[in-house]
Specification:
The chain is α/β, with parallel strands linked by helices. The chain has three domains: about 1-95 and about 310-330, Rossmann fold, CATH 3.40.50.10800; about 100-215, 3-Layer(aba) Sandwich (Rossmann fold), CATH 3.40.50.10800; about 220-300, Rossmann fold (3-Layer(aba) Sandwich). The chain has 16 helices and 13 strands. Helix 1 runs parallel beside helix 15. The longest helix is centred in the N-terminal third of the chain and has 20 residues, at about 5-20. The chain is globular, with a radius of gyration of 21 Å. Bound molecules: 1,3-dihydroxyacetonephosphate and iron/sulfur cluster (SF4).
């Protein structure tokens, strides 16, 4: 065996021993985009919604190790009980999309819109992929968090109470969801924080039903309709399934769209021998190809999230060897209280 493989084997053995010693006092949560070796060592794998639900309902674990990106660990920390400590193996595992919504700019945009429409006309909805300050802003104004697996439910909930929605920070998930609910293109405005009034007129703001913060995921916007056309030419019988962070042009030309858990189920339920082409992060696709050797599983394009990849055996072991001491994810109390409201509104949807 090469040196690297020997080192990894030793780390895996040490991680397993620590897991056995801590038993149900330890909970390792792994997002679907994690490397296979990390997912294999976790107690629960899932999409961002399932993992936040799991963190919220856990009664036993004193230590939650979140193998995912920072906003996910932060959400677990907001939902955690007082005696629970959440750690992330690499504090620098951020999210490009979450970084596109700065809390000062969000507050300014909110004030500008509600000065025109009146505050009671607009419901803030925030995608899980955002930092705690944005979730807190949403909670303070009566809104909810959502993920890609419950965005349409959240939109329906919001429209049940208010006339308009301001959705942060993923323009594409927001647009795909609005279209699913029959909102017309002309009723949707993109809010560009770098332009006065987000690049819109007062008249347009008064008429709009959905405001979309101009943010996106660099991993999912690498997919394009030409790649779909090429794949359909080479694999005419294949089914194409993509994540809703893709552009609407890509979603429209696919056979199915849904969260990472939806994609996992879609692959599991597909008949043997089928060809499935997937538009999401490459580590999930590679793992599915290993788990379902009876199906042909191909990426629409090889797109990789370097933030998710920051979590590895070395830093997971380091976290476990320093349980409760390093890389603890904390959230300021006042922010936590308001962000909790928005997360709880999502869990109650
Ligand atoms: P899911 O909510 O589908 O897990 O997606 C999270 C994410 O970051 C996708 O890029
Ligand atoms: Fe963020 Fe995109 Fe990575 Fe998901 S895939 S964590 S949205 S950068």
């Amino acid at each position: 065996m090469e040196d690297r493989a020997v080192e990894d084997r030793e780390r895996i053995d040490k991680i397993i021993k620590i897991k056995q010693r801590l038993g149900n006092k330890l909970l390792i949560l792994t997002h679907h985009y994690q490397r296979k070796e990390i997912v294999d060592l976790g107690d629960h794998r899932g999409d961002s919604f399932a993992l936040s639900q799991r963190a919220a309902r856990d009664q036993n674990a004193r230590h939650i190790i979140f193998c995912g990106v920072h906003f996910m660990a932060e959400s677990a920390a907001i939902l955690a009980k007082e005696n629970q400590v959440v750690q992330i193996p690499d504090m620098n595992a951020g999210c490009w999309m979450a970084d596109m919504a700065d809390s000062v700019l969000v507050e300014r945009a909110w004030n500008q819109v509600t000065n025109i429409t009146g505050e009671t006309a607009v419901m803030p909805l925030v995608y899980m992929n955002s930092d705690a300050h944005i979730k807190a802003h949403c909670g303070r104004h009566g809104g909810a968090v959502c993920t890609s697996s419950n965005a349409s439910k959240a939109f329906e909930w919001a429209f049940g109470q208010r006339e308009k929605i301001f959705f942060f920070p993923d323009e594409h998930l927001g647009r795909n969801t609005a279209f699913q609910l029959g909102i017309q293109r002309e009723e949707i405005l993109v809010w560009d924080p770098e332009k006065p009034l987000g690049g819109n007129t007062t008249a347009a703001i008064k008429c709009a039903r959905v405001f979309l913060w101009k943010g996106h995921c660099l991993v999912h916007t690498r997919f394009n309709p030409q790649q779909i056309l090429n794949m359909r030419t080479h694999f005419p019988k294949a089914k194409i399934v993509v994540h809703p962070e893709c552009t609407n042009e890509v979603v429209r030309q696919s056979d199915a769209v849904g969260s990472t858990s939806f994609i996992v189920k879609y692959v599991a339920n597909a008949p043997a021998d089928s060809t499935l082409i997937i538009g999401t992060e490459i580590n999930l696709i590679k793992r599915l190809a290993i788990e379902y050797p009876d199906k042909k599983i191909l990426p629409l394009f090889d797109s990789f999230c370097p933030n998710m990849y920051k979590i590895n055996l070395k830093n997971l072991l380091f976290c476990l060897e320093n349980i409760g001491k390093v890389n603890i994810v904390t959230v300021e109390e006042t922010i936590k209280k308001d962000a909790f409201i928005a997360l709880e509104n999502m869990l109650n949807l």
